[in-house]
Amino acid sequence: MRAEIITIGDELLIGQVVDTNSAWMAQKLNEHGIELYQITSVHDDREHIIAAVDGAFKRADIVLTTGGLGPTKDDITKQVLCEYFRTRLIEDGRVREHIYDLYKDRPDVLNKLTATQWMVPEHAVILPNRVGSAPLMVFPHGPQLLASMPGVPYEMKIAMEEQILPYISRQYAVISGRDSVSPIMHKTLQVSGIAESTLAILLEQYENEIPSSIHLAYLPKDGIIRLRLSSYGEMTEEEMNLWYKRLKTLVSEYLIAETDEPLEVIVGKMLQAQGATISTAESCTGGKLASLLNKHAGSSAFYWGSVVSYDNSVKQHVLGVPERILETYGAVSEETVCIMANNVRKQMNTTYAIATSGIAGPSGGTAEKPVGTVWIAWATPEGTTAECFHLGKLREQITDRACTKALIGLLRMLQVRR
After folding, report:
1. Residue 87 near residue 124 (C-beta atoms within 8 A)
2. pLDDT over 80 at 176, yes or no
3. Which residues of 261-273 are buried (b: 16+ CB within 10 A; e: fewer)?
4. d(Cα 356, Cα 6) in Å, to the nearest integer?
5. What structural domains does the chain harbor?
6. Nearest to residue 310, comparing CAs of 260, 360, 274, 350?
7. DSSP state, 410?
8. 110-160 per-position pLDDT tens digit
9. 223: left (phi over 0), alpha (psi -120 to 50) or beta
10. Do residues 1 and 172 lie in contact, with contact meaning Cβ atoms separated by under 8 Å?
C-alpha cells in the first residue's frame, strides 16, 4: 500500500514554517506497513491543490493532506476538496456541539468565522478532532481515499494516531479481505571513522549479493554514516535479520551503534544503565553539547550541568586554567582542555566530563592552528585523554562535528566499561 503527503500553506514555501509533520507521518505510515512515495508542498491556491491531488491519486492508494483548514479567508483546503470531489458543505451538528464544548470558556472565539468550521463536505466521512475545531475529513475515491487534517503538529499527530491510521487499517481490511498489510522493515547501523566512498568499496560485494527486495542507503552527517537496510513488504523478518547481521560483521571495526537513535540518546541510556553522570566545559561549541545532552526527557538522571567558558577569563577564573598555561599553549590546546575537563568534573562531582576548545571561525585561525582545529578532552575515573580534530571550514559544521566527536568518544568509553 502506497501513500503520498500533500502539505498545504504558503508559509511552508517561503521558509516561515518548517515542515516537521511529514517526517513524523512517514515514520508512522511505515510502522503500519504503508510506503510513503512522495511529499509535495503547495500554495494556498485552488489550481495548485487540485493539480497536486490529481497527481497523487495517479501514484498512491492513500493521499494525506495537512493544512489550510482554519476559519480565515486564506484557508481554502476544505472548499477546494469539496469542489474536487463534487460535493457541497452542510452543517454538522456533532461538529458544532464539539466546537461549543471546546470553547465554552472562551465565548469570544465563538464568532461567525468559527461557525464555518462546522460546515463539512456532505459526502465525506467526518472523524472527530478532540483537540481542535477543524473536523477531520476522509474522502472515498473508489478503492483510494484522501484524508485531510490540520497542519498544527500536535493536532495532526493526535488525528493520525487516534483516527486516520485506525480508519485506514479498517478500510484496507474491507477492500483487500486481509487483516493486515505486509510489514515494512528498516534496520540501521551507525558507523564512524571511515569515509563514505571507502565504506562503499568495503561493501561492494555485499551490495552485489543482496536481493532486489532489500535496499541499502548511506546517510552521512557530521562524521557519522547511517547504513539503513529497507524492505518494503517483500521479505520475512528472519531473512532481513540474516542480511543485517552480515552487514554488521562487515562494518564491525567502525560500528558505534545498532539503532537509529540520536547519539545523545544512546549515550544517555548507557550513562543511566551504568549509574554514571556527565558534565561539560565548552568553549567553541558554546553550549551546543550541553543542549544535546539536555535535549531529551530523563536527562536529569545523568546530566549535571555545564560551564560555557568562551572567554579566557572564564577558563581561568571559573575552570581554574592557569594563566601560564593559556599564555604558553593557548586556549586551543591539549593542556587547556584537559584542565577544563578535570576541573568541571571535580566541581560538579560527575563520573565523566567533556571539554571542547577550538577555532570555529571564520577568523582567528593561524598557520599552526587553522580554522576548524578543535581539541576535545574526556575526563574519566581512570584518567583524562584528549584528541585534536580538524573539522572543516564552516562555523556551524565545525561545532556540530565537534559535538559528534565528543559524544562518539564518550560512547566508546562507555562501551568498554559495559
Report:
1. yes
2. no
3. ebbbbbbbbbbee
4. 43
5. 2-176 (3.40.980.10), 184-257 (3.30.70.2860), 263-417 (3.90.950.20)
6. 360
7. H
8. 888 888 899 999 999 999 999 888 989 999 999 999 999 999 999 999 999
9. left
10. yes
